From TrEMBL:
It comes from Klebsiella pneumoniae subsp. pneumoniae. The keyword Hydrolase does not apply. The keyword Lipid metabolism applies. The lineage of its organism: Bacteria, Pseudomonadati, Pseudomonadota, Gammaproteobacteria, Enterobacterales. Pathway: Lipid metabolism; fatty acid beta-oxidation. In the N-terminal section; belongs to the enoyl-CoA hydratase/isomerase family. In the central section; belongs to the 3-hydroxyacyl-CoA dehydrogenase family. It comes from the Bacteria. Gene3D superfamilies: 2-enoyl-CoA Hydratase, Chain A, domain 1 (3.90.226.10). This is enoyl-CoA hydratase. PANTHER family: TRIFUNCTIONAL ENZYME SUBUNIT ALPHA, TRIFUNCTIONAL ENZYME SUBUNIT ALPHA, MITOCHONDRIAL. It is an enzyme of class 4 (lyase). Keywords: Fatty acid metabolism, Lipid degradation, Lipid metabolism, Lyase, Multifunctional enzyme, NAD. GO terms for molecular function: enoyl-CoA hydratase activity; long-chain (3S)-3-hydroxyacyl-CoA dehydrogenase (NAD+) activity. One of its GO terms (biological process) is fatty acid beta-oxidation. Its EC number is 4.2.1.17.
Length: 246
């Protein structure tokens, strides 16, 4: 018996392909190892269909985009080699999504966490709903893990090292307006028009890259670790002086 796919592809009349994420029988979308072949199959279809002008990822769930990776999938790894193979599979799939020549947009409503945010980061643009349920973050550190599917690389390039490290090392989650201010998403819209807004963004072509401040570009370079350590020391010293003056 064939497994029901969690990813359904439909091409609209305007030639935007909408990929709806809906893990069968689950209240929340979580990334599972078996989804890898499903996504790769869709990517092959998109590459073969030259008429498609863009792609939108959206969830069919009521209150989540993708809430992260399936913890049981990680727990089943019995060796470092198995864990590494799992991480590499995720990295390769995200790279294939990002490598598509047409614009790929993530339409985010609800929880977009862990592997869900890494998938959104692999897209060329991101739009989220202004709903209170919408949160974006990489909370893996709270489980003693680090993002394994490219998030440690794509997030700093998008929003700068300082904000990215704050998110990755604390598990901090951003609300829609915070995500917009940080440059993590391109637009914040009501949920009712989320899909249409994402389609319109895809039809415009790939969104232009956000200009990252000079300090963040330096931190992202080879001297970043040294510079960031110095900045952290200076901040702690300033905080101690402030406390002493009180």
């Amino acid at each position: 018996m064939d497994t029901v796919s969690a990813f359904k592809l439909e091409v609209r009349a305007d030639k935007i392909a909408v990929i709806t994420i809906d893990a069968p029988g689950e209240k929340m979308n979580t990334l599972k190892a078996e989804f890898g072949s499903q996504v790769r199959g869709l990517i092959r279809q998109l590459r073969d269909d030259k008429s498609v002008r863009g792609v939108v990822f959206i969830s069919a769930k009521a209150d989540n985009f993708i809430a992260g990776a399936d913890i049981n999938m990680i727990a089943r790894c019995r060796s470092a080699q198995e864990a590494e193979a799992l991480a590499r599979q995720g990295q390769q799939i995200m790279a294939e999504i990002h490598g598509l020549s047409i614009p790929v947009i993530a339409a985010i409503h609800g929880a977009c966490l862990g592997g869900g945010l890494e998938l959104a980061l692999a897209c060329h643009g991101r739009i989220c709903s202004d709903d209170e349920k919408t949160r974006l973050g990489l909370p893996e550190v709270q489980l003693g893990l680090l993002p394994g599917s490219g998030g440690t690389q794509r997030l700093p390039r998008l929003i700068g090292v300082s904000t990215a490290l704050d998110m990755m090392l604390t598990g901090k989650q951003l609300r829609p307006r915070q995500a917009l201010k940080a440059g993590l998403v391109d637009e914040v819209v009501p949920q009712a028009i989320l899909l249409q807004a994402a389609v319109e963004l895809a039809l415009k072509g790939r969104p232009t890259s956000r200009e990252v401040p000079v300090r963040e570009r330096v931190l992202a370079g080879p001297w970043g670790a040294i510079c960031y350590s110095s900045l952290s020391v200076n901040k702690r010293s300033a905080k101690r002086r402030e406390i002493t003056r009180r």
